[in-house]
Design a protein that fits this description.
With about 290 residues, this protein is mainly alpha-helical. A hairpin with a 4-residue loop joins strand 1 and strand 2. The protein is elongated and about 105 Å long. It is built from ten helices and two strands; from the N terminus they run H-H-H-H-H-H-H-E-E-H-H-H. About 70% of the residues lie in helices and about 5% in strands. It has a two-stranded antiparallel ribbon. The N and C termini lie far apart (about 85 Å).
Length: about 290
């Protein structure tokens, strides 16, 4: 009788991955242990002999890495391959090769689609809701806390089932048509646009250096008090709007990605710079 993975076991495998995919991440095998844990119920149902179960678990705790949400399609594909292997229609070597081949595409799509596009868009919506009114500011975080986990779970489960049903043939067909590269490039561009919009909307950096003087109005002969005759922030934004938040974002990105600074160290640097500029401004009398 042909072996088939039950719906209960598929769900157990998926939730093992969904809740614990990042808990075992380390330098040696990255997400390998989590992948093995996800495949454990599937292996236990498909194989009867202890040595077969042991061999299957060993090939799934090797090096593996992907984006956790979109990457669930890898688990689904491998579930289908393990089912085929248990029925003598596949080989362990093919399963291992497929796992390695899926790391690149699923990581690229996952990071572009989920991390760089969907999450920033959702954050933008929720931040906008939180800023509309003080009385309903709590609604933004609540919407995020509900939509993010539920939406993530639905997306991951659909991709898991898609991988299981389509198997390696479906993935090969998708990659051979060139749609994978097109989707990845499109999501990358969309993600950069969203990040740029977030920078302009939610990163604030002003330079409130002003020269304020009393000015004589020669037409009326009256003295106008506290007139702004020089505003550095206004002049800069008239030449290049939002260039200061853009510059701050690029500087922080370079320190984080290139110099490997920690977020805590970056926040400390920004605080020190802000205090220094504020102190200089008040000591020189440039801050109105």
């Amino acid at each position: 009788m042909k072996k088939k993975i039950s719906e209960k076991t598929l769900k157990k495998s998926f939730f093992n991955w969904f809740f614990w995919n990042g808990c075992s991440q380390q330098a040696e095998s990255m997400l390998g242990m989590a992948f093995g844990q996800s495949m454990a119920p599937v292996i236990d149902e498909l194989y009867d002999k202890k040595e077969d179960k042991s061999a299957a678990l060993k090939r799934h705790i090797t090096l593996f890495n992907t984006e956790g949400q979109v990457g669930s399609i890898c688990n689904g594909v491998v579930c289908g391959l393990e089912e085929a292997n248990a029925n003598g229609e596949c080989t362990p070597e093919l399963i291992s090769s497929v796992k390695v081949a899926l790391i690149g595409p699923t990581s690229a799509i996952g990071d572009s689609l989920w991390v760089a596009t969907i999450i920033p868009i959702l954050l933008t919506i929720c931040l906008s809701i939180a800023q509309t009114s003080q009385t309903t500011a709590w609604l933004g975080p609540v919407v995020y806390m509900l939509v993010y986990p539920i939406g993530t779970c639905i997306l991951s489960w659909k991709l898991f089932k898609l991988g299981y049903k389509s198997g390696i043939e479906g993935m090969q067909g998708f990659m051979s048509t060139g749609k994978l590269d097109t989707l990845t490039d499109t999501m990358t561009i969309l993600g950069l646009i969203v990040v740029g919009a977030l920078t302009a909307s939610f990163v604030n950096f002003s330079l409130p250096i002003k020269i304020v003087r009393d000015v004589l109005d020669v037409t009326t002969g009256t003295m106008l008090k506290d007139q702004v005759i020089f505003d550095a922030d206004k002049i800069i934004n008239s030449i290049f709007p939002k260039i200061l938040p853009l510059g701050l974002t690029i500087a922080v990105y370079n320190l984080y990605s290139k110099k490997k600074w920690s977020p805590l160290k970056l926040m400390g640097l920004i605080l020190v710079i802000a205090c220094a500029i504020t102190l200089v401004g008040y000591l020189t009398g440039f801050y109105a």
